[in-house]
Write a structure and sequence with these properties.
Elements: E1 5-9, E2 12-15, H1 17-26, E3 50-54, H2 59-75, E4 83-88, H3 94-108, H4 115-122, E5 125-129, H5 135-152, E6 158-162, H6 169-178, E7 196-200, H7 208-219, E8 227-229, H8 237-247, E9 261-269, H9 278-303, H10 312-325, E10 326-327, H11 332-338, E11 339-345, E12 347-349, E13 352-354, E14 372-379, E15 389-394, E16 401-408, E17 428-434, E18 438-446, E19 454-462, H12 463-467, H13 474-484, H14 493-512, E20 518-521, H15 528-535
Parallel strand pairs: 3-4, 3-6, 4-5, 6-7, 7-8, 9-15, 11-20
Antiparallel strand pairs: 1-2, 9-16, 10-14, 11-14, 12-13, 14-15, 16-17, 17-18, 18-19
Helix pairs in contact: 2-3, 2-13, 7-14, 9-10, 9-14, 10-14
The structure holds 6-O-phosphono-beta-D-glucopyranose.
């Protein structure tokens, strides 16, 4: 073997190409045959632990959590002893949980489910029935965890996951603390009984005040380093790639600023409606549901300065700096001028007639909840002063697409004016987050021929094509990080609170506004008023 080792980098042998290739094929990992994917196995291994999912009978567990854990396990077996305790008030047994989860995994996981693979996984699933508000039930849960610790040598390591309606967060946390199942562990803790972490699902509060109160409540039982506030957009591969794109290439950073960028457009458009979640959505609306969390995270990765290091606190320090520099509209008049709230009416989605929002189940027929929000933000710092960030999100829009588009300024002088190039479109760099993850650069090129005609053309990078494989689901990445204890892709306390403070003036103004949101037909790109928001600045929304 040694004569096939070409060199060593950081002690890792680099093999001759033909040997590498053979290994890849021997492994029957045909997907890994793509040379860009060589040597990419995740070197990190979680410690044995018990993951406790509160709200295990809910939709999120079936659609996202369990399939993600199964996929992690299938690709890179979790440590022996790893166990999951599902908790809910329903009368389920270990076997019911296993049967239900098999259906969920078969439907939603990326990896195939064979009988053998399922048996290997299902033996780690256990169920505990508990009323989240009853302390006595948490004594039973604690005892079950200790029993499993002894049987499976999980060493007291616990990953709690709150996947319940938010009204249960407080009681669950208080009960975990009260029965001694969780204690504050900070860097000085000498506690040898294992680590405890808690993952908190969104929505993290419904305004600044409730987010602060929830932070304070969690902090009575867990220290900040134990808290993992999830925003699944940060787990999306292309969002992370934005950091690589910006900070691992010399080419783009020099023009990534107010001197070259005209404006930024962030679009998170969904073609689906509220999908049976009318009750939740009525209380939430697009601003709370998408802007406060996912879209502001996209603003951060796009606008942040290079962090001092690639670690949790350095990254989050930079994101918080961006959020603190955001100048949201505050006065009622400013809010009216710089924001648009919309609501879909009946229309056609993929050729099918779909109902309007007010006709959806559990929605008030006179509802004023916005299913669409568009806004213009400014970031007042040295890099971005004067560059508007236009953000929009909506349900039932023309198609599902999430992208960040950086539109650059025009060239200072157009040499080709006499050759029909007066309306040449400026350079645009588009980061497509979903679907068709990739990056596109639009630039001007000469049309072949004897005349000097110019046209906009595109340079396209597509993830799927380049790497031959889609990235992991966001939950896979984030759950794995929580098991490992890497908080970089989770939101910090100050980050969530500042994000809420940005949207708060708009939430307040919209709550007091007795007019109806601007209507838009399902299956379109949003209300006319949103077009006007950009038209006032002499710009137009992209049609992705
Ligand atoms: C969730 C919102 O956080 O994100 C949903 O509550 C929304 O309303 C979803 O549909 C969008 O996520 P994705 O990954 O499908 O873009």
């Amino acid at each position: 073997m040694t004569d096939t080792i070409r060199e060593r980098r950081n002690g890792i042998p680099i093999l001759d190409d033909h040997v590498q290739h053979q290994f890849i094929q021997d492994d029957d990992q045909t997907l890994h045959a793509n040379p860009l994917r060589r040597g990419l196995a995740d070197q990190r291994t979680p410690q044995p632990c018990i993951m406790v999912i509160f709200g295990v009978t809910g939709d999120l567990t079936a659609r996202k959590l369990m399939p993600a854990i199964y996929d992690i396990h299938a690709l890179q077996p979790l440590p022996e002893g790893f166990a999951i305790i599902g908790v809910s008030h329903r009368d389920w047994s270990d076997q019911t949980l296993r049967d239900e989860m098999r259906k969920a995994v078969e439907q939603n996981a990326r990896q195939p489910v064979s009988n053998e693979a399922w048996e290997a996984f299902a033996g780690s699933l256990f169920y505990v029935k508990a009323d989240f508000k009853a302390q006595a039930d948490f004594v039973g849960l604690r005892d079950r965890m200790e029993e499993l610790d002894r049987e499976r040598r999980t060493g007291g390591n616990r990953l709690f996951y709150l996947s319940t309606p938010p009204s249960y967060y407080g009681p669950i946390i208080a009960n975990l603390g009260a029965v001694g199942a969780a204690t504050r562990q900070d860097i000085y803790s000498t506690d040898q009984t294992g680590w405890q972490r808690i993952v908190v699902e969104k929505p993290f509060g419904r305004d600044v005040q409730s987010a602060r109160a929830l932070n304070a409540e969690i902090a009575t039982v867990f220290s900040e380093r134990q808290i993992y506030r999830i925003d699944h957009y940060l787990g999306k591969e292309t969002v992370q790639n934005m950091l690589a794109f910006r900070f691992a290439n010399i080419l783009f950073e020099p023009v990534w600023n107010r001197h070259y960028v005209d404006h930024v457009q962030i679009t998170v458009a969904e073609s689906l409606g509220v999908e049976g979640r009318g009750g939740y959505y009525e209380e939430s609306g697009a601003l709370r549901d998408m802007v406060q969390s996912h879209i502001l995270q996209l603003v951060c990765v796009c606008a942040m300065e290079p962090p001092a290091h690639f670690d949790g606190n350095s990254l989050r320090d930079e994101k918080v700096k961006v959020l603190r520099s955001v100048v949201p509209p505050v006065a009622v008049k400013e809010i009216a001028e710089r924001t648009v709230r919309g609501q879909y009416t009946a229309g056609y989605e993929a050729g099918q007639l779909v109902p309007g929002y007010r006709e959806e189940k559990n929605v008030n027929p006179g509802s004023r909840t916005e299913t669409y929000a568009a806004l213009k933000l400014e970031i007042e710092n040295w890099r971005w002063a004067g560059v508007p960030f236009y953000l929009r999100t909506g349900k039932r829009m023309a198609r599902r697409v999430t992208e960040i588009a950086i539109e650059f300024k025009r060239v200072p002088y157009l040499l080709f004016k006499e050759h029909g190039a007066s309306d040449l479109t400026p350079n645009v760099l588009t980061i497509r987050i979903q679907p068709d993850e990739g990056i596109t650069l639009r630039f001007a090129a000469k049309v072949p021929g004897s005349a000097n005609h110019l046209r906009a053309v595109r340079m396209d990078f597509q993830y799927g094509t380049a790497f031959g494989q889609a990235g992991p689901d966001a939950y896979e990445r984030l759950l794995f990080d929580a098991m490992i204890g890497d908080p970089a892709l989770f939101a910090r306390r100050d980050e969530v609170e500042v994000a809420w403070s940005i949207v708060q003036p708009m939430l307040d103004a919209w709550a007091y506004d007795s007019s109806d949101p601007a209507a838009y037909d399902a299956g379109t790109w949003g209300p006319y008023e949103a077009e006007m928001l950009l038209a006032k600045d002499g710009r137009t929304w992209r049609r992705p």
